[in-house]
Amino acid sequence: MTSVDDPKRWWWEITVTIRKIFVAAIGVFGNEMGEMQVHVTAYVMVVVIVLTAVIQPFGKKHILLQFLELVTLLATWMTLWAGTVFNTYPRCENGSGETIEWCDTLSITIGIIDISCVVLFISVIVYYKREKQCVKCCSNLYEKTIGVRRRRTIVRKASNRRLRMESKEVSSFANPTLDPEIVENTQELTIEMTTVE
User: Fold this and answer.
1) How many CB atoms lie within 10 A of CB 28?
2) Of 32, 38, 153, 161, whose CB is crowded by the most CB atoms within 10 A?
3) How far apart are CA 161 and CA 173, in angstroms?
4) Where are the alpha helices (DSSP H) in 56-147?
5) Mean pLDDT per 10-residue run, the chain (197 residues)?
6) What distance in Å separates the CA atoms of residue 111 and residue 176, rounded to the nearest whole number?
7) 178: three-class secondary structure by DSSP
8) What is the rounded distance in angstroms from the CA atom of residue 133 to the CA atom of residue 121?
9) How far apart are CA 138 and CA 140, in angstroms?
10) How far is 102 from 152, CA to CA, in rounded Å?
11) How far apart, in Å, do the first and last CA atoms of the chain sit?
12) 93 strand-pairing partners
């Protein structure tokens, strides 16, 4: 998944490989560790999450990849943490055979988070494959919604300012060292003065 874009962080791919080998080795050879297997793996994931957040291996240009990396690492950690809960409460039952509701809720929530990460991952791949079309579509949508509102606000403010400037109660002064023609064409260079009652 990673594609380090910053040449100063060329070594990050090595840490990703080491992490994957370590997690696989714990999964394969860590049976004799018992429940500590999950705790050690969760600890390694926390260290990796912090390093990824601090080092930002994708640089400033690929914030989306940085976000995706952190989200998937957090989902992995949450899955491991839920595993410790399920080790404590197998089948989400207490000692008397009754179902624990929060445990069921936890398992459903973790499942939804993991599925959402897969969907997010696929969406980011599609976005980068069709980046130009996505950017064009998003900019068109932006122009039709927020851009129109911004332009209307600018026109309204300029109109209100013009009305204030033409009022008898307002006196406008410009820097006398400026060319009068420039001041006439650029109203923003004038200073409004109103009487205070």
Assistant:
1) 8
2) 38
3) 14
4) 63-88, 101-129, 131-142
5) 63 89 88 84 91 86 88 92 83 78 88 94 88 80 81 84 69 67 64 55
6) 70
7) coil
8) 18
9) 5
10) 50
11) 67
12) 99
Residues 6+ apart with CB under 8 A from 68: 1, 120, 121, 124
| Whole-prediction pTM | 0.62
How do the domains of the chain map onto residue ranges?
7-129, 131-166, 168-197
Predicted pLDDT at 107: 87
How far from chain centre, in Å, is Cα 24?
A: 29
Integer Cα distance of 3 and 12 in angstroms: 9
* DSSP assigned state of 61: T
Length of the chain: 197
Which amino acid is present at 117? C
Q: What is the pLDDT of residue 171?
A: 62
* Token couple for 64: 């989306």
Contact 190, 174 (CB under 8 A): yes
pLDDT confidence of residue 192: 55
Q: How far apart are CA 73 and CA 66, in angstroms?
A: 11
CA distances from 180 to 103, 159, 168, 184 (A): 76, 22, 21, 6
